[in-house]
Amino acid sequence: DTAVSQTPKYLVTQMGNDKSIKCEQNLGHDTMYWYKQDSKKFLKIMFSYNNKELIINETVPNRFSPKSPDKAHLNLHINSLELGDSAVYFCASSHRRGANTGELFFGEGSRLTVL
Amino acid sequence: DQQVKQNSPSLSVQEGRISILNCDYTNSMFDYFLWYKKYPAEGPTFLISISSIKDKNEDGRFTVFLNKSAKHLSLHIVPSQPGDSAVYFCAAKGAGGTSYGKLTFGQGTILTVHP
């Protein structure tokens, strides 16, 4: 039983396409996140949702649109993919105390390659 | 400007010896510092954390030290084991409501423990 699961794990697509990455957590957490690990290996936050409400929205192109249908799911949709979007995208979740202390539970990551 | 830096890309240690991983930060507005461990093809997993009001936290073989005046933290692993071989990420959580769950990560240090 994977606590935070992401699909797909690998995604190869052409520039200009639209793609989605799905994330689900079965930990009962109320906060979920998307982080991006770029080519320099830095993990950077993109979005955070608490009980389906957007609470963190970093400087991310508006081609990236998160959607949280319920507090167990946070999906990431990317329009008009560009070469620079190639990265590993990590979904994470936390309970309220974990969000206060920084203890997050990460999924395995989704490697996106844009050709 | 990267606010959390791990200046050593890699570290190699003999089994049974001490591993010391270092991390520097530039922002004083962090209230928690954390270490995450990452195996290949997996997401980061939380290892240990320390509040900014403390200078040491110990959990089994893992100890984190915080030197606020130097804006430096370190992770000590004693004794090191081959299973500790992984990428270690230092992370810092911003204080304040808008930083709820927002972590700033270093670029990681690859630890290799040789039998």
Describe this structure in words.
Chain A is mainly β and 115 residues long. Helices cover 5% and strands 55% of the residues of chain A. The longest helix of chain A has 6 residues, at 96-101. Chain A starts with a strand and ends with a strand. Chain B has 115 residues and is an all-beta fold. Chain B contains no helices and eleven strands. In chain B, strands 2, 4, 5, 9, 10 and 11 form a six-stranded mixed β-sheet that branches. Chain B has a five-stranded antiparallel β-sheet with strand order 1-3-8-7-6, with no helix packed on it. In chain B, strand 4 and strand 5 (45-51) form a beta hairpin. Chain B starts with a strand and ends with a strand. The mean pLDDT of chain B is 93. The interface between A and B is medium-sized, with 29 and 25 residues.
Brief rundown of the structure:
Chain A has 115 residues and is mainly beta. Helices cover 5% and strands 55% of the residues of chain A.
Report the major sheet of chain A. 7 strands, mixed
Number of helices of chain A: 1
Helix fraction of chain A, binned, reads: under 10%
SSE sequence of chain A, one letter per element: EEEEEEEEEHEE
Please tell me what the overall shape of chain B is: globular
Described by its quaternary structure, the protein is heterodimer
**Protein chains sharing the most extensive interface:** A-B, 29 and 25 residues
The separation of the N and C termini of chain B measures 38 Å
Shape verdict of chain A: globular
Structural class of chain A: mainly beta
Q: Indicate the radius of gyration of chain B in whole angstroms.
A: 14 Å
Counting helices, strands and paired strands, the structural category of chain B is mainly beta
Order of helices and strands of chain B: EEEEEEEEEEE
Percentage of residues assigned to helices of chain B: under 10%
Count of alpha/pi helices of chain B:
0
